[in-house]
Amino acid sequence: MTENETITSEIRYTADVVALTPSGRILLIERAWPPFEGAWALPGGHLDDAEAPHVAGARELAEETGLHVNAGDLHQIGVWDQPGRDPRGRYTTFAYRVIVPDDTPVTAGDDARTARWWPLNALPEKLAFDHADIINAAVIPTP
């Protein structure tokens, strides 16, 4: 970038949560709004002003699924910021993993049509955004 160039696209920040159970299930929501309306996705959403990403992750998880976790129990697995990962514009997401008991109940809320547990070995064919990559990073430990 030269001195006279500027970045014209605003970057929006989100947090996504990979909630897993010890028996190998993952929590997904069916999106109620575009983009990817009707597709399955990780619970997550936009950071509020002056909100830490892990706090936003815990808040969005509760709002979309009724699952309440302590923000301190979320473990960051990475940051996804590739251009084009969201059709609405430039988005950077902080992704977190949390392990919860097998019998944890969930209820869809906020931006979710449905919230449900899926076996990791039988996920929906198409996931929204780049959530398949985030899930892979969460379940396949890095060396």
Kindly summarize this structure in a few lines.
By secondary structure, the protein is an alpha+beta fold. The protein has a single domain (11-139), classed as Nucleoside Triphosphate Pyrophosphohydrolase, CATH 3.90.79. It contains 2 helices and 7 strands; from the N terminus they run E-E-E-E-H-E-E-E-H.
Fill in the keyword field for this structure.
15% helix; Nucleoside Triphosphate Pyrophosphohydrolase; four-stranded mixed beta sheet; 7 strands
Question: Would you spell out the secondary-structure blueprint of this structure?
Answer:
Blueprint (H helix, E strand, L loop, with lengths): L10 E10 L4 E7 L8 E2 L2 E3 L6 H13 L9 E6 L9 E10 L12 E8 L11 H9 L4
Parallel strand pairs: 1-6
Antiparallel strand pairs: 1-4, 2-3, 2-7, 5-6
* Helical percentage: 10-25%
Q: pLDDT under 50 segments (min length 5)?
A: none
- Roughly what fraction of the amino acids lie in strands? 25-35%
* Estimated structural class: alpha+beta
Distance between the termini: 34 Å
In the CATH hierarchy, the third-tier topology is known as Nucleoside Triphosphate Pyrophosphohydrolase
- Overall body shape: globular
User: Order of SSEs, N→C?
Assistant: EEEEHEEEH
Count every beta strand, where a strand is a DSSP E run of 2 or more residues: 7
CATH architecture name: Alpha-Beta Complex
Question: Biggest β-sheet, characterized?
Answer: 4 strands, mixed
Count of discrete structural domains? 1
- Please state how the strands of the largest beta sheet are arranged side by side: 4-1-6-5
Q: Quickly name the level 1 CATH class.
A: Alpha Beta
Can you count the helices? 2
